Amino acid sequence: MILSIGSGLLADIDVIVSKRDEVYVKVTCERHIAKELSEHFTFFVPGYKFVPAYRNKIWDGKIRLYNSQTNTIYHGLVKYIQKFCEEREYTCSLEDNLDVEDEFSLYLAKKFNSELNIHSQNKPIETRDYQLDAFVHAMQHRRSLLLSPTASGKSLIIYLLFRQFYNYQNLKGLIIVPTTSLVEQLYSDFADYNNGSVENLVHRVYQGREKESNKPLIISTWQSLYKMPKTFFHQFDYIIGDEAHLFKAQSLTSILTSCINAKYRIGLTGTLDGTKTHQLVLEGLFGPVKKVITTKELIDNKQVSDFEIKCLILRHDDEICQYMKDCTYHEELEYLITNKNRNKFIKNLAVSLGNNTLILYQMVEKHGEILYTMIKETKQLGNRKVFFVHGGTDVDARENIRQIMETENDAIVVASYGTFSTGINIRNLHNIIFASPSKSRIRNLQSIGRGLRKSDGKDRATLYDIADDMRYKKHMNYTLRHFVDRTRIYKEEQFPFKIYKIGLKNDTDN
């Protein structure tokens, strides 16, 4: 039973939840209930058996969201405490207005949106209904994890929040993004929406830039700020985490927990990894999940490009399959990325495709550089522009390549997953090639999102998912299993896909 503070004597209530600060709530209850809470909010971390600390018996592989020493838990998990009490028929009281929502209506959101006169590329743009709904939800609840897929316009939702906080409440905020490229991209988007500049309102932080600023908003990478003293983060009234699925990392968690005065805490992501632990940590730091819209709905509503997946399964020689059956995953991956015939197939595929093509790889020197060189030296390339992007590529160069892709119609970009799979906005992208195998749900969905955005003259995008069949008798190779995992994701997301089986040629002629 959930009770308000005025419904009875506190002595008659089993669990009392009160606000400690904007990060944690305190739970007052009997010791046996506290023990139950501790067990209820304790989970094994996915992949814990492979962590050195667990192998060395320093750590038990568990994460404990409820601190039994301080009787505190993340503010964003209040609804789970309520559910815990309901299931066990404990009475529960929420103090300090923890269950009160702010008054903010869709009418006010539409009025505010109209006043902003938002533009893109000097043309007025219409804010979509689901973007306004997400904006209203975040303002009403103060804490929320907005689940909205790539190409759904998350940057516009963030802009609405920023302008609302600045225009009407004069709040100071922090927006955390994962890469320097996304700092520049978000800043550029804000300037675009403002029909000019936001230089007087927004300060950017990454390597070599001043971290302190009196401007009402700071956009930064987490790498630039996580070593700052905790008192630095006390200045912020709100914090927004873009690509929030990354915030389970310790450094990012420390930033969120240091923002003890940030009453608005909003995370945005297109994907969660599917594990309960991951979701609970993120909901604890930001707030309950709110599904804004799905990729399937965006496609059905013609708000993103039509999309298809062509799964190209390369069958390797039987002799190779027999030899590889006893290899480790890393040995198998090493064989694949250094395989001349496989790389030649990728090169020929990229060159044969018309329009703009993005090739995503994992290892820079062992794979990315090789593919880039092979494509550059191809006689059939003609005058097509080819770009190579990796972690060491200067942020200005990355932004320049991104902008060139918006005007080119026949370019090829060979980019690492880390630089171009997450967040980068390229509207004029027609083809994506998965050159390196991956089973990461987040990485795959984020990568797919690169091709979903619409642009003039583009209404369809295609993903070429390259898989490798090295089965031998009953043995299935690692990367083929990863491909099976990817097809499950495609089915769950209702992406149309077709499978093509191709024998990998053995000749090494160019």
Describe the protein.
It is a single chain. With about 500 residues, the protein is of the alpha/beta class. The protein has 19 helices and 23 strands. The chain has a seven-stranded parallel beta sheet, with helices on both faces. A seven-stranded parallel beta sheet has the order 19-20-18-21-22-17-23, sandwiched between helices. It has a five-stranded mixed beta sheet with strand order 1-7-2-3-6. Helix 4 packs across helix 5 and helix 14 (about 340-350) packs across helix 15 (about 365-375). The longest helix has 16 residues, at about 155-170. It is globular, with a radius of gyration of 25 Å.
Structural class by secondary-structure content: alpha/beta
Q: What are the low-pLDDT stretches, counting only 5+ consecutive residues below 50? A: 4-9
Rg over CA atoms, rounded to whole Å, is: 25 Å
* Overall morphology: globular
The strand count comes to: 23
Strand fraction equals 15-25%
Query: Biggest sheet, in brief?
Result: 7 strands, parallel
> What is the CA-CA span between the terminal residues?
73 Å
Q: Compute the average pLDDT.
A: 88
Q: How many helices in DSSP terms?
A: 19
Classify the helix fraction into a percent range.
Answer: 25-40%
Strand order of the largest sheet: 12-13-11-14-15-10-16
